[in-house]
Design brief:
By secondary structure, the chain is mainly alpha-helical. The chain is built from 13 helices and no strands. The protein is globular.
């Protein structure tokens, strides 16, 4: 049962957003915060993402049955189980945030509203990828607030980068559903602009991501290790877009997971090494 639930919520994709939260946490703490804070941040991430994914599955339950790519999702768990996952994970998220600090607890309902709202956006706007990006961008801001209890520029710049990163790779991924979305009359950037133009837009979004990562390094006063890692990030994004240009389904899926997992892991490793070895200078 646990294995089916983890597959249902695509738990393996946690690797995408989590490293950006950890990187923000390391910069905010100028190293490692207490083990308690680290544990609470990780728990908040897991519960928020579980609630979001389960809610998204419920919102798209009937639609997913019609899409050949997603037709098997509803067979993994019952709808009652999905509702239970949303309820339990949401309450657990609130409880964890209450243990972190007052501002995290006060903003926790706002965070869930944002990530739940994303599930409905494809019904009325073509720019759903940006709402998905906004949902994941909460992670680095939340981690910063967990450590410092106040807003600052580094997590905001990083969050902006996450929005364009997610928007770009999800737009590439969405090309697989072009025919389905068009037939169902769904609002989709791919349907609105076409596959070729959408792939060029994704390239532009990832160019903005690189600028934001550069900006994050500047406002966070990071050093040469971090800036050197941006070359590797750029290489991974190039690989992703090259695979997408071939419009090969297996290649897109492989590039989607491998390159984006690589980007997020390289990011957090570079930030960690920079902070721990060179030290944050601000």
């Amino acid at each position: 049962m646990l294995q089916r639930i983890l597959k249902f919520i695509r738990f393996s994709h946690t690797v995408f957003a989590l490293p950006f939260a950890v990187g923000s946490m390391l910069v905010a703490a100028k190293g490692f915060p207490s083990l308690v804070i680290i544990g609470l941040i990780l728990l908040a991430m897991v519960f928020a993402r579980t609630a979001a994914m389960a809610f998204n599955r419920i919102a798209d339950w009937e639609m997913d049955k019609l899409n050949p790519r997603t037709a098997a999702r509803h067979k993994l768990v019952s709808k009652a189980t999905a509702y239970a996952l949303v309820g339990f994970s949401s309450l657990a998220f609130f409880a964890v945030c209450s243990l972190i600090n007052p501002i995290c607890f006060l903003l926790s309902p706002v965070a869930l509203v944002v990530i739940f709202f994303y599930s409905f956006t494809k019904r009325f706007t073509s720019y759903t990828q940006f709402f998905l990006g906004l949902s994941l961008a909460i992670a680095p801001v939340g981690a910063w607030l967990a450590v410092r209890g106040q807003f600052d520029w580094p997590p905001i710049v990083l969050a902006l980068g996450v929005i364009f990163w997610v928007g770009g790779f999800d737009l590439i991924y969405a090309t697989q559903d072009y025919d389905f979305d068009r037939k169902q009359g769904l609002h989709s950037m791919v349907v609105r602009f076409g596959v070729s133009t959408s792939l060029r837009l994704a390239q532009g979004m990832h160019a903005v991501l690189l600028l934001c990562l550069l900006g994050f390094g500047l406002v966070a006063s990071l050093g040469w290790i971090y800036y050197l890692s941006l070359l590797a990030v750029g290489g991974a994004l190039f690989y992703e877009h090259r695979a997408a240009a071939n419009l090969d389904l297996a290649g897109i899926n492989r590039a989607f997971f491998h390159s984006n997992a690589f980007v997020s892991v390289i990011f957090v490793l570079a930030v960690g090494m920079d902070v721990l070895l060179l030290g944050v200078r601000s």
